[in-house]
Specification:
heterotrimer; A alpha+beta; B alpha+beta; C alpha+beta; B: alpha+beta; 5-stranded antiparallel sheet; 12 helices; 12 strands; C: 36% helix
Chain lengths: 861, 327, 162
């Protein structure tokens, strides 16, 4: 067991008090003098050409300062360089209900909302596509002209010889799985505040500062520069506290661009905060995925081949789509040893909000299918489902058939631990009917080995500054979004420098102050920003050590930094010798200014005393720092991290997505019961073992494991975006059912530490890898409980009951909605706005169908 | 989403409230706990010129047991207060059970029994923002002239989704309604019209002030079963309330009501007929379930499919009847 | 609409404010009083991030008209820590991982505060039921239970010491 003084101990987050007292500021909590409110006008149609926009009536409303439309900022952008298909506001077409058409800037929310209804937009309605498989057949009215068949991107990968593999198999299973669409629903609705300064030299609008709820300040700075045609150096992006991301803030969200464009036009600071409904429209969640999966195994449990055809309903814009569809294929590898893989992936455009990255990006839905099918095959060959997983373990270090390098691999221990803790062997098969246990595994990347912006720059860079006060300031571009990024950074710096945690202050995610970090997504922060922090701390420590070594008449390499002291290797830590008053002073770092000044005076006299004593046996951290500063001036160190070339994957087309310097592993067992009359599923407990390399902050690691498992459970049981012809039926926290405390089960997190050779202190990711296993673990437990295999998530009571009925050959439960079989299948066919030709006098003044009428006198009301 | 602008009326008495309601009739909404009205106003389902805020009227609060064994509940009594009333728990347990399932604890601190009785009917095509409704071309219930759940229909099918009314119906509750001409009493059963649009018999100048539970409804066993996806927060997707009194192993009296599957909460009269005088067994409970399910007319107004929700009325009825008949 | 003068008593201090009759308590707290601890997470009284105490009872400030709270004692999360130190529940939420992104945390703190005021020694089920008014997307609620247990223990110890 290694001996650490800071890491490895449960540590309250450095910003915990800000959060529990309500003192911490999130973007919507900020205001600046003269700030105006922006409100966005959204498209009522899923697919339409904009014929004309007239903003005059809105502009004339008292309190309205500006109305912004597409041509105010026509440059396209998108998170991926291959997917620049979005505009701040629609230029010529709208592509989903909720697409962004105009933005009103006004003195208050109420005025802005009123003005929105005065923006006259004439649309030419186009046929719309809602189902990906239908959409792929489109010949005309394409969603984007340059995407034939509405296919954003398709990939066809063959590794090994799948035909040979299937020929060798004793059993082959083949089935279609569907995972319905889910979204992040982070508790904080997105918010952006944009403000320009006047340039003293030109006298015109100059530098732009944007405060935004983002996981990726650097990407935001980059895209703002593109759209606003301003140099990046003139744009400062600051990330205040962020109220959860889960991927939903990991790309540039329309309001971030719109706020900046609006601030420019209004020539005043503008804040836009989404309503919850707008958050659902901004979306970027996990796409509905259709998976046709075929797996072959031998009677000894060895997997011989896997073939997957995956269709993702990506929504109207590319977003991260190309990456998502690649992850879905690439992450078939690196969990088990699979000799032959065939993958056909289609990312399809439809007239719905764009899907993007969500916790477990790309892997979750395919993992649900795979682990369910593996369970089925285990039953077919009469093997314990835990055992079949053990039979297919990788033997690292190795490179998988699809080119992924695996070094540390805690999966065997994860399986062992959950089997033991859940008493799997003793209890499985012996529970009363209606109650069951299910097992599944998953994994995830610790950051992508290849950045989405192709360049040679490091993925993370961290600077450290230490001045005479002995305070350590770490500057990192990594974004704290609740996952503990800032705390991890402080811990790593403190561990290396051997100083106490309160001495370290983290300045994060401010593009003016912090070096570039590509952001908080794909679980990259601990591994990459952690490594960069480690290197920056080593860098600065070298300088302190050199100065201290002189004072102590020894070699720098012989020094140990620990507990705010510097002493010679082999000598006892001089804690006993420590001056009491100094101890008190050190723990007061961050106390009042006068306290600090007094401390320095005290320290000064102490130093003087020491000087007279001659060469030292030990020094305090501050003495060592002062010695080094006397030499160098303020100390700075820098460190950066770029994934090694060996970890960057194969050379095949699309091979850049999937490789990671290290993978986390998870194994889970779920215990559920199923009500056979209602189909209701209760999850009693989930045992979740997660290989995180090394747990830098165990309380945070456990929190991340539990949170992932819980979110997976939400997708498994209750969460689903429900669509009717492009209308999102549940765009709110009431109808989009994120689990409440009462139905949330106990999750027992089990930390497994495989100590990765390249991770900071051996650490890997812990925030995403567990999610994917939860859905199949629950599905497999349902199978164990009542013998039905579910192929569509979420496992709502009606889907479960329908499956139970089919199994019992009972009266079928018809899950089609219409009670009237002659009723039109699509609501727009029977009166949705798209084809309404009526003229009812009762119709609301805002009804688009009424726009045909000669005049809408008197405006909104 | 901001609220539409309105003037706030804060009457100090029921008389003053009713006078105000009459004066601004048609242009005023009554605010009690606000848990239904405020979100609806954000969605611009209501844009009244005046809002009449009852919160300050203490006279409308309280659970008051009567000498005859009945009980009177002020309309402004919060659902939490009802949940915590030991008197009601002891003598009218079906109400306590139903109340305890409404929304979430904090919402029950705000929501009132009068509000739950007057709850607006709900539909996925109606309880949406103005922008959203623009996208669907509006509907009969608000701003439009078509129905999205019953295509071609001219009637609104928005579902009544209160939890307490089925329990109150089982208890033969009456309500007091005060208008400009003074108070009147109405059996709760007659309060609902069965039409999703104009779902209640209440003039815009009237106020529901009290709920009466008659003495002869006291001390029935009571059970409430609610279908919802989450264990909290959710409105019911289907609900069944049962009260039962037995003697010598047979049902002496029973009533059953369902909610969230029709535009009104409904007493299932036939269920009483089937149960009274019988000993409850699986087969009888099954049969009652069938009848209740046939009374339910769920449409696509809520999450989960109508077929499933009707099926759950059957299952929950059976379970509730068996539970009420068990010791 | 013309603004009206109201007197609001928040965290023990009385403020005279000119507000619109349609102003929600949440907006007045956040915008007029700068008490941004209470959060807006939804628009339909579902998420609980805006929970405050009104005369000691937990309520959603997004669903209350500010004007109708006149004369009542309002406590927000900013009024929870006292004498310059964290309340036991705040400290425990930090120590046990009860707060991750922190956005829902003020609402939870208020809900727990009202729970413990009413029931100083709640069972696990009591806690679970009480927390069901508030949604959290980060924690899966588990670590909150540990935090609440620890806060209760700390309170009991504190009381015993006195």
């Amino acid at each position: 067991m290694s001996d650490f003084s800071v890491i490895g101990k449960p540590t309250a987050m450095v910003d915990a008090a800000e959060k529990t007292t309500g003192g911490g500021k999130y973007t919507d909590d900020l205001s600046v003098p003269g700030m105006l409110v922006g409100k966005i006008l959204h498209s009522p149609y899923p697919h339409a050409r904009i014929k004309h926009i007239d903003t005059t009536r809105a502009e004339m409303l008292d309190g309205v300062v500006a109305v912004v439309i597409g041509k105010d900022a026509p440059n396209p952008y998108g998170i991926l360089p291959v997917g620049h298909d979005e505009h701040a506001l629609a230029l010529d077409k709208v592509r989903y209900v909720g697409d962004n058409v105009a933005c009103v800037v006004a003195i208050s929310e109420a005025v802005a909302e009123k003005a929105l209804e005065l923006v006259d937009v004439q649309y030419e309605v186009l046929p719309a596509y809602f189902d990906p498989e239908e959409s792929m057949k489109a010949q005309t009215d394409l969603i984007h002209d340059n995407k034939p068949g509405n296919v954003e991107k398709d990939y066809h990968h063959v590794f090994g010889d799948p035909d040979k593999g299937f020929a060798e198999a004793d059993r082959v299973a083949e089935a279609r799985f569907i995972a319905n669409e889910v979204t992040h629903a982070a508790m904080e609705p997105h918010s952006t505040l944009a403000s320009f300064e006047l340039d003293p030299h030109t006298g015109k609008l100059g530098r732009l500062t944007v405060w935004s709820s983002t996981q990726v300040p650097y990407y935001l700075q980059h895209k703002l520069s593109l759209v606003l045609e301003m140099p990046m150096a003139q744009i400062r992006v600051i990330k205040p506290l962020v109220g959860g991301g889960f991927g939903g803030k990991s790309e540039v969200i329309p309001l971030e661009i719109i706020a900046a464009v609006a601030a420019r036009k209004a020539q005043a600071p503008v804040k836009i905060t989404y309503t919850r409904e707008e958050v659902f429209w901004a979306h970027r969640g996990r796409p509905r995925t259709i998976i046709d999966l075929k797996t072959g195994v031998k009677n000894d449990g060895r997997i011989t081949a896997v073939k997957a055809r995956v269709v993702q309903d990506g929504g109207a814009y590319c977003s991260y789509g190309v990456v998502t569809i690649l992850y879905s294929g690439a992450l078939l590898g690196a969990l088990y040893d699979i000799p032959h893989i065939q993958y056909d992936g289609y990312r399809v455009l439809t007239n719905k909000p764009a899907c993007g990255a969500m916790r477990g990006h790309g892997t979750v839905n395919v993992r649900f299918a795979f682990e369910s099918q593996l369970d089925e095959l285990a039953a077919a060959i009469g093997m314990d489902p835990a055992e079949i997983r053990r039979r297919n373990l990788l033997k690292p270090p190795c490179i998988t058939v699809n080119g992924l390098r695996v070094q540390s691999y805690g999966l065997p221990e994860c399986i062992e631990k959950i089997v033991e803790r859940s008493s799997w062997k003793q209890r499985r098969g012996k529970l009363p009917r209606g109650r069951g246990l299910g097992i599944a595994c998953s994994h995830y990347v610790s950051g992508a080995a290849n950045s989405i912006i192709r360049s040679d720059m490091p993925h993370s860079t961290v600077n450290i500054k230490i001045d005479r006060d002995g305070g350590v300031v770490v500057y990192t571009g990594a974004s704290e979004i609740g996952q503990g990024s800032d705390t991890m950074t402080a811990q790593v710096a403190a561990e290396i420098l051997g100083c106490s945690l309160p001495r370290v202050r983290v300045i994060a995610a401010d593009t003016d102050l912090t070096p570039i970090d590509i952001g908080s997504y794909s679980s990259r922060v601990t591994f990459m920003a952690g490594n960069a922090t480690l290197r920056a701390a080593e860098d600065v420590k070298k300088r302190i050590a050199a100065a201290a070594a002189k004072k102590m008449n020894c070699a720098a390499d012989d020094l140990v930094f620990r507990d705010d002291l510097v002493f010679k290797k082999g000598s006892a830590p001089p804690s006993a010798k420590k001056d009491q008053s100094e101890e008190a002073e050190v723990t007061q770092t961050g106390a009042s200014v006068s306290g600090r000044v007094e401390g320095q005076i005290l320290r000064g006299s102490l130093q003087q005393k020491r000087k007279e004593e001659g060469a030292k046996e030990w020094m305090t951290f501050e003495e060592a720092v002062v010695a080094a500063i006397d030499f160098h001036g303020a100390l700075t160190g820098t460190g950066s991290y770029a994934p090694p070339p060996e970890a960057r994957g194969g050379k095949h087309k699309g091979g850049g997505v999937g490789p990671s310097p290290a993978y986390s592993y998870s194994a889970q067992i779920a215990e559920v019961s199923v009500d056979k009359d209602t189909g209701e599923v209760t999850v009693h407990k989930i045992w979740a073992a997660h290989d995180c390399g090394r747990a830098l902050n165990p309380v945070s690691v456990e929190g991340q494991i539990i949170g992932s498992v819980w979110m997976g459970m939400g997708q498994a049981l209750t969460e689903e975006m429900v669509w009717k012809d492009g209308m999102l039926m549940n765009a709110g926290m009431l109808e989009y059912r994120s689990p409440s405390s009462v139905e949330s089960p106990e999750v027992e997190p089990i930390i497994v530490e495989s100590i990765d050779p390249e991770g900071p202190f051996g650490a890997k990711e812990c925030s995403e890898g567990s999610l994917a296993a939860t859905i199949p673990a629950i599905s497999n437990a349902i199978f164990d409980a009542v013998g039905v295999r579910l192929h569509e998530s979420p496992f709502t009571p009606e889907r479960v009951l329908a499956a139970l009925r089919a199994q019992r050959r009972d009266k079928a439960l018809n899950l089609t909605e219409g009670v009237d079989p002659t009723a039109p299948a699509r609501f727009r066919e029977h009166g949705g706005a798209l084809c309404f030709k009526g003229k009812g006098p009762e119709r609301h003044a805002l009804d688009p169908a009424r726009r045909e009428a000669p005049a809408v006198a008197g405006g909104a009301d | 989403m901001s609220l539409p602008q309105f003037r706030l009326l804060r009457p100090r008495s029921v008389d003053e409230a009713v006078t105000n309601l009459a004066r601004y009739s048609g242009n005023v909404r009554v605010l009690a706990g606000g848990t239904d009205l405020i979100p609806s106003m954000r969605q611009k389902l209501f844009e009244p010129e005046y809002v009449l805020d009852l919160r300050g009227n203490a006279e409308l609060r309280g659970v008051r047991p009567q000498a005859d064994g009945g009980v009177e509940i002020g309309a402004l009594t919060t659902l939490s207060a009802i949940e915590k009333s030991t008197y009601l728990r002891q003598h009218f347990p079906v109400l306590t059970e139903a109340v305890a399932t409404v929304a979430s604890p904090v919402l029950r601190n705000m929501g009132t029994v009068g509000g739950n009785i007057c709850l607006d009917t709900r539909c996925l095509w109606y309880n949406q923002s103005l922008t959203w409704r623009k996208g669907c071309g509006f509907c009969i219930k608000k701003d439009g002239d078509l129905c999205h759940v019953a295509p071609g229909g001219t009637k609104c099918w928005a579902a009544f989704c209160g939890d307490t009314p089925p329990a109150l119906l089982c208890l033969n509750a009456e309500i007091e309604i005060v208008g400009i001409d003074g108070p009147r009493r109405l059996p709760l059963q007659e309060f609902y019209t069965g039409d999703g649009e104009n779902y209640r018999r209440l003039l815009s100048s009237e106020l529901v002030t009290r709920v009466f539970l008659p003495a002869d409804s006291a001390d029935y066993r009571g059970v409430y079963r609610k279908l919802r996806v989450r264990g909290s927060i959710d409105y019911p997707l289907a609900g069944v309330a049962v009260v039962m009194k037995r003697s010598n192993g047979q049902v002496a009296d029973a009533r059953l009501a369902i909610t969230a599957v029709n535009p009104a909460p409904l007493l299932v009269q036939r269920a009483s007929e089937m149960l009274i005088g019988k000993a409850v067994d699986e087969a009888l409970a099954d049969a009652v379930g069938e009848v209740a399910a046939r009374t339910a007319k769920p449409l696509t107004t809520s999450a989960l499919t109508p077929e499933y929700r009707r099926e759950m009325i059957r299952v929950f009825t059976k379970r509730a009847v068996l539970a009420a008949a068990s010791n | 609409m013309k603004k009206e003068l109201v007197e609001l008593k928040v965290n023990g201090r009385t403020h005279e404010l000119a507000i619109e009759p349609s102003a929600l308590l949440l907006d007045v707290l956040r915008q007029d009083l700068g008490l941004t601890g209470s959060k807006r997470g939804c628009d339909e009284s579902s998420c609980g991030a805006c929970t405050v105490l009104v005369d000691g009872v937990a309520m959603m400030s997004c669903t209350l008209l500010a004007a109708s709270c006149e004369g009542q004692e309002i406590t927000t999360v900013e009024g929870v820590s006292q004498h310059g130190s964290l309340a036991a529940i705040q400290k425990a939420y930090g120590d046990w991982g009860g707060a991750q992104c922190g956005f829902c945390t003020p609402g939870f703190i208020m809900t727990v505060k009202s729970l413990l005021a009413e029931n100083p020694d709640p069972s696990e089920d009591d806690v679970r039921a009480a927390l069901s008014s508030n949604l959290c997307r980060c924690t899966g609620y588990s670590q909150m239970y540990a935090a609440i247990r620890s806060a209760i223990a700390a309170e009991q110890q504190g009381t015993a010491a006195k």
